[in-house]
Amino acid sequence: MSNFDELKREALLAIQGAESVVRLRDVEVKYLGRSGRLTEVLRGLKDVPENERKEKGKEANALREVLEREIAKCQSQLQDADHERKLAAEKIDITRPGKKHHKGSLHPLTVIRRDIEQIFGTMGFTVAEGPEVETEFYNFDALNIPADHPARDMWDTFWIKGKKLKTEGKKLLLRTHTSPVQVRYMQTHTPPFRIIAPGRVFRYEATDASHEIQFYQLEGLMVGRDISLAHFKQVMQTFLGTLFGKDMNVRLRPSYFPFVEPGAEVDMSCVQCGGRGCSVCKQTGWVEIAGAGMVHPHVFASAGLNPKDWQGFAFGFGIDRVAMMKYKIPDIRMFYQNDVRFLKQF
Ligand code: PHE
């Protein structure tokens, strides 16, 4: 009798003292396992005298049931506790401030090109494009710059070796300006129209703070029955005024480009000093910004338009240069070095 009580007391104590599921399993093995304490007792029953055997057997089985029930109860408690602990450890504090992710930003030249397209868009200009690998015909001949004419030297050219276009028998090159888009557009469209053509151009020349072998230009072309340089001046003034957010004056100085007649250099008020004179504008109050002029009759002709029917203006400027003035960037090469510290400011 006292044997069972002792065993029961000991086993229950061990069960309650188990502080993990693994320890509890040890206890179970110790008492109820194949050679566990209670199992031994049950096995020993065969040696117990007949008259006591039944009674002892009952008691032993009752004890086993108690222990089994107790172990099951303890196990589910320990499992619950485990679960609670895990939940607490994995808890997410949704009130904590988030981690910052580094976002990319648009390249300054993209930002300004979009701004420029938007401004010209409000004046009815649509965007046209042409290839960066051009033919000699579109880059020069069609623009009234014949072979061997000294005017070709105005553009230092990257020629593409060995390649000739069968259809035109002309060499290929990297376009030195966006003006070829004028011809391509006029070949495929009937005036009146107004377009801008932004794009990459290439010059075979030494680089410095204001020269790159690759940069961006924006071509403009407006053709109709009676389009004049007066229209051009107004378009330019509106464009610059909107882009720089202040009144801008524009002046034209006579100049020469083979594909326009008359041709002009376009100056705008110095953004730095507003025209009073400073080191940026060399005390003149003016900064050169674009080339422009009235489309040359030969250009109309090479695009298949009758110069007697149509007239218009064309202009071209460097997008990089405009961006440098707007954002006060001292060196054009910064646009192409991809230094994140520079780029992320835009
Ligand atoms: N294409 C000229 C250049 O690259 C600029 C220009 C365009 C001049 C249109 C006149 C008219 O220098």
From TrEMBL:
It catalyses: tRNA(Phe) + L-phenylalanine + ATP = L-phenylalanyl-tRNA(Phe) + AMP + diphosphate + H(+). Binds 2 magnesium ions per tetramer. The keyword Aminoacyl-tRNA synthetase applies. Keywords: Aminoacyl-tRNA synthetase, ATP-binding, Coiled coil, Cytoplasm, Ligase, Magnesium, Metal-binding, Nucleotide-binding, Protein biosynthesis. GO terms for molecular function: ATP binding; magnesium ion binding; phenylalanine-tRNA ligase activity; tRNA binding. Its EC number is 6.1.1.20. Residues 57-84 form a coiled coil. This is Phenylalanine--tRNA ligase alpha subunit.
